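ESCALATION

Customer reports they have been waiting on this structure for their group meeting. Please prioritize. Original submission:
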Amino acid sequence: MEIRHRMTGTQSGPGQTRRFGSRLRILAIGRNPKTTLIRAAVLAVVCVAVFKLVLLPVRVEGISMTPTYSDHSVHFVNRLSYLWHEPRRGDVVGIRLTPPDGWSAPHIMYFKRIIGLPGEAISFAGGRVLVNGRTLDEPYEKGPCDWNAGQVTLGPDEYFVVGDNRSMTKEQHTFGKAERSRIVGKALL
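Update from on-call: job pushed to the front of the queue and completed.
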């Protein structure tokens, strides 16, 4: 008889609804709402700090970086990437459109690849990049290119940047010298 009573006692009733409600509350806000609120506030502050000060989301507009970065894709620029070393050849960087002393929202920038370092001479001949007269190996360059451009000598604080999609005509592309102060950071992924 006792076993039967236990089996029939498993039917749902008002007590079951209260238990479900309290479990839902525990799942949503935890057993200690004060601690949960503090954790949520800390998480919000960390997220704001990371996504406003360290990682900048950037939406790619245009095809100048195809196939590496497709049109309308979203990527991040790491502002801290060049704290301990200078930009390197092959890095994809975010470049601020206006000088640092001018006004510009930090997320409005170019996404370009560094192919020339300070003090180097860059030119294009028959679609190939020449650095100080030597052909640059570019494994990321996939499409055909027929660009020809005269030699540009970079200053002590300048980098030469260009997009990966060089099958576009040279006139449709934005490329050239970029001052170090305009490089915001390195692209992630």
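Sent to customer with the following note: Helices lie at 2-8, 14-29, 33-54.
Escalation resolved.
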